[in-house]
Amino acid sequence: MGELSNQCKQHLEDALANEDPREKDFHIRQVIQAAGMDDDADERRQC
Q1: Where residue 13 falls among pLDDT bands split at 50, 70, 90?
Q2: Handedness of CA 27, 29, 32, 34 (dihedral sign)
């Protein structure tokens, strides 16, 4: 996997800063979904 986009990094920071487990889950899922699209960086979605 390549480097994460700034938007993905922000989602991870938001997950760490948030106390609500549902909010943490939302931000982490956004990153997992974006990173899991394809191994080809050109095909990878942004968060």
Answers
A1: very high
A2: negative
